[in-house]
Amino acid sequence: MPTRDDPTQNRMRETLLSLDEALVHLLKQLKGIPRVAQDAFTPWETTCAALREQLSQETVRIAVVGAIKSGKSTLVNALLKGDYLKRGAGVVTAIVTRIRPGKRLRARLHFKSWEDVNNDIRQALVLFPPDLRPADGENLDIRQKEIRDGLEKALASLDSEHLISAETRNVHSVVLSSYLEGYSKVYAMLSSSGSVREFFDAEFEKHRTFVSDESLAVYLKDVSLEIPTERFGSDIEIADCQGSDAPNPLHLAMIQDYLASTHLTLYVVSSRTGIRQADIKFLLMMKQMGILDNTLFVANCDLNEHDSLENLTGVTEKIRNDIRAIRPDPEIFAFSALFDLFSSQKGALSEKDRARMLQWQKEDTLVSFSDTQARQFESALFQLIHEGRSRLLLKNHVERLWIVSSGILRWIGIMETAVTQDTSNVHEIIEKLSQHQKRAEQIKGVIQTTLEGAVSKMKAELKADIDGFFDTGATGVIRRILKFIRDWEPAYEAYRDVLERDGFSESLYRIFSDFKEGLDGFIAETINPLVIRLIKESEKKIINHFEGISNPYEELVNDILEEYNRGMAALGIPASVEPRYGSIKVDMDWIRKGAGIRLPQNEIALRYSTKIRSDAILYFGLFSFAGWIAKLLRQKAPDGAANGVRSLRKGVIRMKRETERTVSAHFKDYRENIKFQYLFKLSEAVSRYLLDALGQRLQDYGATLALLGQTVDGEREDRSRTLETLRASKARSIEIRDRILQIRENIESISQ
User: Where are the domains of the chain?
Assistant: First the structure.
C-alpha cells in the first residue's frame, strides 16, 4: 500500500510542481540580464504555466457501479477508511457523488438553475392529459404559487398506477412530486444561474440529507466531496454512481456520461443476490461502450448470509461464472466491505455496529478470507492507478519539463560562451545559430504541411465512419431507432378498461406514456452505449493516426539536434542535452481541456404534439358520429369502446409518424455535432499539439540571435554582470535538469 514516503506518482507530482516553479523562477532571473526582452522566454513560460494548471486539475477517474443496495457506498467508505457517504441512499434519484482527496472535509452541492428545474417539469408534463396540464406550459415557473397548486392538483387526480413507481412505470409523476415536496426546503438556495452550497468539517454530514432525500436530490446538478486522506493522490476521483438498475432512462444517461470519461470501473455485486438480470443488462451495456475490460469486480459479502467458507466461495464462483459469459477471466474479489469499514473505525462504532463486529469476528475462517481478499483487492486497485493512466500523465509532464530545462540550459550555454568570446567568435556563433534556425524553420514547415494533410485525411475517414454509423441504411443507428418506433405496438385490448373507466384522453395518455418510456429506454440502453463506443474508437483512431505520422519526424528532430550540438561543441559550447528525447504520446485529456472541446450531449426530448392529440380526437368523433348514423339506419353500430380503440390506433399511427420526424432530425443534428464540434476539432487540436511539441524541441532562436548581436557591442561591465547571472543560473539549471532526468528514469524503470 503506497504511503507518503514511497516513490509513488503522488510524490512525483509534488516534485514536478516544485521543479516547474523553479523553472519559472529561473526564467525571471534570466530576464534580469541587460537587453533581454520581456517576451524572450514566452514559449517556455507558457509551457510551465499550462503544466502547472494541468497538474492541479488532472484527474484519474474511478467509477463505482452496481445494482441498488449492492454496497457501492459502503465500498467507497471502506476505501476511504471512514463513514463519509450515506449508506443505503434513495433508489430514484441519480446523483453521481464525486469524491477527491482534500485538506479538510468539504461537500460542494451544485444546484440546478430555475430554468433547469422548470425544463425538467415541462418534460415530466409532456404526456400528461391536457386537462391536468397548465394552460401555458412553455412559460411554466414553479416559483408561481398557482403553478405549484395546479401541479399538486394534477398529481392528486392521477390514480395509483401513475403514482406508484414500484414497477417504475411512470417516473414523471415521481419527478413532479419530488420537486413539489422539496420546493419549500430549497427555494432560498436556488438562483437563475445555478448556485453552490458548501458544508465544512462538522457540518459535512449535512450533505447526506440532500443526497438521500429524493425531494432534495432532484434539485441537485452535481455533488462533489473532499476528504482528507493519504491513501489516494490529489489527482484521483472516485465516483459513487446510481444503481445499474436505475429506473429512469435519463438517470442511466447521466451514469453513461460519467463512465465515458472514467479510466477504471469497480463493479459491485451483492453476495446475497448474485448476478441479476439488471447486472447482466448493465454489463452488456458496458461491453458495448468498450469499457468492460478495464473493470475490477467486487463480490460484496454479507457475513450474516454465509454459514461457511465453502458456501461463500461457492457463491463467489457462481458470480464469476455468470460474469465470465460477458467478460472472460474477470478479476473478482470477495470480501465484506462493511466489515472492512468497521475494522478501520473500531473506536467510533455504535453499540449496534460493535455488536455486529464482535459476532462476525467469531467466524475466524470467514473473517480471515474476507480480510485477505480485501487486501488483494486494494493491491490490485492501487497498482492499476499508479501504473496505468497516472504513469502516462506523469511521463508526458516530465517530457515537457525536460524540453524546457534543456532549452534553458542550451540558451545559457550559448550566451555564456558568447559573453566570454571576442567579437569574431561571437559572429561565428551567430552564423551557426542562423543556419540552425533556418533549417529548423524548414523542418517545422514540412511538419506543418504534413500534419495539415493528415488532418484532411483524418476528417474524411471520420466523416465516413460517423455517417455510416448514423446512416438510415440497414445497419445505421437511425434506422434501428426508426425500426423500434415502427415495430412498437401497444396491446390495445389492455386499454379497453381504461377507455371505459377513464375516457379517451386518459387512454391516449397511457399509450403515449408507455411509448415514450420504451423509446427513451431503448435509446439509453442500446443506442447511447454504441455512440460512446464509436467516439472512443474514433479517438483511438485519431491518436494512432497522428502518432504514426509524428514518429519519423521525432527521429528527424533528434538527428537535427544532435547535429546542432556537434556544431556548437566545435565552437566551444558544450551540448546540454545528453539523452535523446522520448516519443511524443498524445494525451487526449490535456488536449481536450486546452482546446475547450466537450463531447456534445445526446438529449432528445419527445415533446407531446397537440396535433397528434387533436387528430386522434377528431377520429374518435368521426367514429362516434358513424355509430349515431348507424343507429338511425338501424344498423349494428360499433360500441363506444370499439370507437375508442379505433381512434387510439389512428392516434398511434400519427404519433409514430411525428416521432420518426423528430428523432431523425435530432440524430442528424447530433451526428453533425459529433463530427464538426468534437471529432474534427479534436483532430485539429491533436495536430497543433504535435506541431507544438516538435516545435518546442526545435526552439526558435530569434531572441537569442538578437541578444547576441547586442552583446557584441555591449559595455564590458554589462558583460561582467551578465556573466555572473548566467553562471549562477547555469548551476541552478543543471540541478533542475538532473532532478528531472532522475524522475524520467524512475518512471521508465517502473513502466518496464
Answer: 60-112+231-390, 113-228, 435-576+583-701
